[in-house]
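Supplementary Methods. Inverse-folding protocol.

Structures were first reduced to a discrete structure-token string of length 258. This string, shown here, constituted the complete conditioning input.
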């Protein structure tokens, strides 16, 4: 890690996110070429690299817990806190990833400060400008369909309380991205800073429906389009489904995914 730091430019503390126009203002409802990768045939290590390279940036957070013996840890039980990670304490985040022995509290190792909570027994991370107190709702074990082995566990939670540091709010009452400065994960050992942002208006059905229907008619002429009784659209010859436009009684068209 020291050798890598020597060849890298110093951390730029003055860089601030900037907002720009959309990256592709000439976007149209047209087809693109894709590479389909069969996860069952692809090498597992190669598939993993593809996934972490494409599913990014991935938000990261500290999960602080307190076990039945009263040991505080950063990694859930019935009540836990989720603490969003920002740039100023990234080193502490990385330190918590050490392969510490079972039952070892990472708080002392990371030298983070415990802050009080309203509902959860577990403390929150004071350095985090945005924290959520959560109640464990459901624990789902993911079983591989072929090997039948338990490969992962998904936790669903109810957010009971949210803590936002007051200097994060802007004049519109929103959390200011340039102040929160969250950090995310990308491929290999890389973390990602929040870069420039885009201000993009959501499409409105009243304005876009004509364009979508024109595109659907073109697809029908090329490969065929089936419209179900529920308004969903299945496109043949494109390798998947597209979004269909559905009229709701007494209201405007609503865009719903198939």
């Amino acid at each position: 890690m020291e050798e890598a730091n020597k060849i890298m430019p110093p951390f730029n503390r003055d860089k601030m996110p900037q907002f720009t126009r959309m990256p592709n203002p000439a976007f149209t409802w047209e087809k693109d070429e894709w590479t389909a990768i069969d996860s069952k045939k692809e090498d597992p290590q190669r598939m993993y690299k593809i996934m972490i390279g494409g599913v990014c940036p991935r938000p990261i957070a500290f999960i602080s817990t307190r076990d039945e013996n009263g040991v505080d840890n950063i990694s859930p039980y019935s009540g836990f806190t989720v603490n969003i990670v920002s740039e100023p304490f990234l080193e502490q985040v990385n330190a918590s990833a050490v392969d510490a022995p079972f039952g070892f509290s990472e708080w002392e190792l990371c030298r983070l400060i415990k802050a009080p909570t309203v509902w959860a027994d577990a403390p929150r991370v004071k350095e985090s400008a945005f924290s959520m107190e959560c109640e464990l709702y459901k624990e789902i074990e993911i079983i591989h369909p072929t090997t039948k082995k338990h490969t992962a566990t998904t936790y669903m939670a109810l957010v009971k309380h949210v803590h936002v540091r007051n200097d994060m709010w802007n004049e519109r009452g929103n959390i200011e991205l340039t102040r929160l400065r969250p950090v995310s994960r990308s491929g290999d050992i890389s973390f990602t800073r929040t870069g420039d942002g885009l201000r993009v208006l959501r499409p409105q059905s009243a304005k876009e429906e004509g364009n979508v229907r024109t595109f659907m008619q073109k697809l029908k002429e090329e490969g065929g389009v089936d419209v179900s009784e529920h308004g969903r659209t299945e496109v043949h010859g494109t390798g998947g489904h597209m979004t269909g436009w559905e009229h709701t009684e007494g209201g405007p068209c609503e865009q719903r995914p198939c």
